[in-house]
Amino acid sequence: MVNKERAYEEFLVASARLNDAEAMAALVQLRGPRLLVHATRLLGNRDEAQDAVQDAWIEIFRALRQLRSDAAFAAWATRIVTRRCARIIAGNQRTRAIARELAPLTETAATENSDDVQLVQEAIASLPPQQAATVALFYLEDMSLAEVAVALDVPVGTVKSRLSLARERLKAHLKGAFDDQ
């Protein structure tokens, strides 16, 4: 995320903590789509993901006063969504699945070379769910290793190993795809 956007998000978090309804709405509009994409990756079902994110927003706003650093909001909110998704998965007694259809992750990605973007999206979709979520948060959401660890509620070492394994799988997947072109 660009520094200006992070600063704006921190401002919205501080304002939302003071029960500013407009700031809360703006925060949902700013962070909500990214949380929905994350939940969809974890659940593999957009309807369940929307429910998880909606419930997570309630939890986020109730617990916002407990957040120690406004700068940590993105990772903290993502962790809440991750835990909501884990509860849904456990409740349904099914394994994690990555969404088959990934919506465009950013507006700019949709306008860039769409064939290459589609190949990368397919490669990410082919990863195990934990690796796909880790890759998406680190590379697409531009979170640090520590932020990804908080968001996924795993140690930093686990994030590093997931990224390493994912890079190898992506390299193999994309090498074959680009060799065919």
TrEMBL record:
Domain of life: Bacteria
Residues in RNA polymerase sigma factor 70 region 4 type domain copies: 119-170
Gene Ontology terms, MF aspect: DNA binding; sigma factor activity
GO biological process: DNA-templated transcription initiation
RNA polymerase sigma-70 region domain residues: 27-94
CDD domains on file: Sigma70_r4
Pfam families: Sigma70_r2 (PF04542), Sigma70_r4_2 (PF08281)
InterPro entries, alphabetized: RNA_pol_sigma-70-like, RNA_pol_sigma-70_dom, RNA_pol_sigma70_r2, RNA_pol_sigma70_r4_t2, RNA_pol_sigma_r2, RNA_pol_sigma_r3/r4-like, WH-like_DNA-bd_sf
Keyword annotations: DNA-binding, Sigma factor, Transcription, Transcription regulation
Family stated for the protein in its record: Belongs to the sigma-70 factor family. ECF subfamily.
Record-given protein name: RNA polymerase sigma-70 factor, ECF subfamily
Natural source organism: Cognatishimia maritima
